[in-house]
Amino acid sequence: MDFRNGRSLDLSSPVIMGIINTTPDSFYPGSRVPDPRTAVERAMEMLDSGASIIDIGGESSRPGAGAIDWQEEVRRVVPVVRGIRERRPEAIISVDTYNCNTASQALSKGADIVNDITGLIDPAMIEVVAKNGAAVVIMHMKGTPSTMSRLTDYSDVVSQVKEQLLERCEKAVAGGVRKDGIILDPGIGFAKNALQSLEILKNITDFTCLKYPVLVGHSRKSFMGYVSGLPVENRLEETLAVSTYLYLKGVKILRVHDVEEHRRIFDILKLMDKSTEQ
Q: Are 143 and 167 in contact (CB under 8 A)?
């Protein structure tokens, strides 16, 4: 996948997207880095540990979270985008926002990808992405983080999520978003209960068979607690198990908190793939 200013991302095999939350209230305390300088240092560590993309969020999207104004989001996110770009001109930077003003500011400072949890529901966001020639993650969600936990009524969660994502892709391309810059995310945990999230994961090849690369953000999420009964701080092993499964199923981007651990399992999986080919 190609980006502006000559940057590119090889998606011939799965890659790691490292999570940086410049928030005081994201669901996993270990991802909270509200100080911009510390956030840039954390990003450097993730890049050195094997992350191919850094995803920076300035507003929590945990279930029940309230919105903040875009000026505050910009204040949290843009200095981190600028700091990473100054230190690593080749880095691929994603901004996790559904606000077109925040996206515009972040793209102007060097971001490459807009990671929109609302799936480009705002026509103004489509315009910003198209105007800047940016890549975009189109995620499936119903409602908002504050209401989504009540919006989990599906007759067939896999087919309905897939259908809605493809509809959003069509609207995005019609609005000028470049087709080769679209990434799909089925939205694990967003307007989906634990069993529905697991159903999507079990049937992830229904998404990977489509013409767009797939991203999955499953790291340490509540469906794992449903299975294990453990709190978010103790869900690393479950995350790595799901990541291995998704890697083998052809998911191209895994959005995770624990980069070093994922790079290590990716290393052995890549070695095993090569061994199989010989």
A: no
Catalytic residue among 221, 235, 252, 263: 221
What is the amino acid identity at position 212? Y
Q: What is the mean pLDDT of the chain?
A: 93
Banded model confidence at residue 30, pLDDT cuts 50, 70, 90: confident
Distance CA 132, CA 242 (A): 34
What's the pLDDT score for residue 211? 92
Give every strand in the sheet of 182-185, ordered side by side.
Answer: 182-185, 135-139, 113-116, 92-96, 53-57, 15-21, 253-256, 215-216
Q: Is 221 a catalytic residue?
A: yes
Kindly report, residue by residue over 114-143, the tens digit of the pLDDT. 999 999 999 999 999 999 999 999 999 988
Q: Where are the alpha helices (DSSP H) in 88-215?
A: 100-108, 123-132, 157-174, 194-202, 205-208
The question of whether 255 is a catalytic residue gets the answer yes
